[in-house]
Amino acid sequence: MTPGLTIDAIRAAAERLRGEIVDTPCMPSRTLSALTGCEVFLKFENLQFTASFKERGALNRMAQLNAAERAAGVLAVSAGNHAQGVAYHAQRMGIPATIVMPRFAPAVKVERTRGFGAVVVLEGDTFDDARAFGVQLANERCLTLVHPYDDLAVMAGQGTIGLEMLVQQPTIDTLVVAIGGGGLISGVATAARALRPGIEVIGVQTERFPAAWNARHGALRESAQATIADGIAVKSLGALTLPLVLDRVDDVLLVSEDDIEQAILMLLEIEKTVVEGAGAVGLAALLKHAERFKGRKVGLILCGGNIEPLVLAEIIERGMVKSGRLARLRFDVRDVPGALADVATLLGKLGANIDEVQHQRAFTTLSVERAQIEVVVQTRGVAHIEQILAAMGAEGYRAERIG
Known about the structure:
Blueprint: H1 7-17, E1 26-29, H2 30-36, E2 39-43, H3 54-62, H4 67-72, E3 74-77, H5 81-93, E4 97-101, H6 107-115, E5 119-122, H7 127-141, E6 144-145, H8 152-168, E7 174-178, H9 183-195, E8 200-206, H10 211-217, H11 241-248, E9 251-255, H12 257-271, H13 277-288, H14 290-293, E10 297-301, H15 309-323, E11 326-334, H16 339-349, E12 353-360, E13 370-378, H17 382-394, E14 398-401
Parallel strand pairs: 2-10, 3-4, 3-6, 4-5, 7-8, 7-10, 8-9
Antiparallel strand pairs: 1-2, 11-13, 11-14, 12-13
Helix pairs in contact: 1-8, 3-5, 3-8, 5-6, 8-9, 9-11, 12-13, 12-15
């Protein structure tokens, strides 16, 4: 017997949220459709004010508090998006909010949460430590705990995304949804199955946190310590969400860290939209399991856009290396005046833009009259790199790509 999350509860949530959150677009992507072999529709939940779908569930839960509960205040335990969603809407509604975050929480997320007027308590080295402390604190202070996923009102709020998507794009026949604690997919699957009984709902997790995949496939893969998809780095589903996922989700797929990085970069380059790791796992699944979705009309939820700028910068640079648009080349040259200038001039003529140069004499196994030049260059891709190496070879340089 699954818990009582119903389409009526989700429709009631939609009424409570009307005009209080962003009605985010759900748009087709021609380019991603061509690349994946299926029709792709993107639900831009990263355009919510706090850049995440988490606002929906938090607001639906808090909108149902009675006067005494509102006066006492709410408490949430979160290291990211849920914290901001609770803090923002609590501030709008005049409800005191306390947010417990682990000590490792990124400073930028701590400050954003404080910026919404919440009292932030940093406690514990792990999320589990923070959660245990938060539950105790809520009990001591008689605060209402707003759970990030294991709450029927929270799940109903997240389910409003499913209602919107099937109105905005009625031809969707498959939904691919990230799974962390299971609140988002429980709500979306419930809404989708009520409106379209034959629709397929597929969950996606990172290989490093495969709790739902384990439950679906009867496996025992262990969780890792961290993932770029930190928004779904949950080691176990909730007591309410687990049976819903098993009952209403057709399958769960896994994606790797490289898959997620590639999807983040593609969404940035192709759709000009910034997503965090959890927001990219749907596209990562389409790319990795392309045959599974061939010819389908697939809805993806870009569930969050809160990625650290330095992490995004690193992903962009790593993506440029993988695609050959950034390459490290090594040249063996005679150690004579003007050799470095000659290499730089020739690279310029070949259309390679130099980012970095390292000129080695001592740290090399070459003979004393030789020198080694390493350059990082911007190119047009792998074919261009091969052209550069061939042309340098034709000019008498021993050249190789080393990264």
